[in-house]
Amino acid sequence: MREFGELESAIMDVVWEAEHPLQVRDVRERLHYSRTVAYTTVMTVMDILHRKNVLQRNKNGRAWRYWPTESRTEHTARVMNEVLGTSGDPPGTLLHLVHMFSLEDRAWLHDVLHRELCQ
């Protein structure tokens, strides 16, 4: 399941990496994409991302300033939870996912679960 298209993902990468809200021109300047993208295209896609509630914005003069509604890790966790909920067998799906982890990641997960469950 992909929530974002290719250009949306590239724009979100820029916004997530920023330390402060960005205007469209700032995003366009920092964008790493396979081809040159027009300012109006970036503006349209950022408006779409705002309507999807993944970007917030406020006016700064005549331009909008945008920032993410959630961090990249919060977003990824939310999407993973949504996908897990649609799997038909969340425990089985989660078990398959854990089997894909490296030994180091399994040890990390064990430690995290132990801390969270034993508080």
Structure explained in plain terms:
The chain is mainly α and 119 residues long. Helix content is 61%, strand content 12%. The protein has a 3-stranded antiparallel sheet. β2 and β3 (63-68) form a beta hairpin. The longest helix has 15 residues, at 103-117.
Topology:
Blueprint: H1 6-17, E1 22-23, H2 24-30, H3 39-51, E2 55-60, E3 63-68, H4 72-85, H5 90-100, H6 103-117
Antiparallel strand pairs: 1-3, 2-3
* Class computed from helices, strands and strand pairing: mainly alpha
Q: Fraction of residues in helices?
A: 55-70%
CATH class of the largest domain: Mainly Alpha
CATH superfamily of the largest domain: Winged helix-like DNA-binding domain superfamily/Winged helix DNA-binding domain
Radius of gyration: 18 Å
How far apart lie the N and C ends?
34 Å
Record the strand order, biggest sheet: 1-3-2
The sequence of SSEs as H and E is HEHHEEHHH
Query: What portion of the residues fall into strands of 2 or more residues?
Result: 5-15%
Tally of separate helices = 6
Average predicted confidence as pLDDT: 93
Morphology call: elongated
Query: What is the second-level CATH architecture of the largest domain?
Result: Orthogonal Bundle
What is the count of distinct domains?
Answer: 2
Biggest sheet descriptor: 3 strands, antiparallel
Number of extended strands: 3
| CATH fold label of the largest domain | Arc Repressor Mutant, subunit A
Low-confidence stretches: none
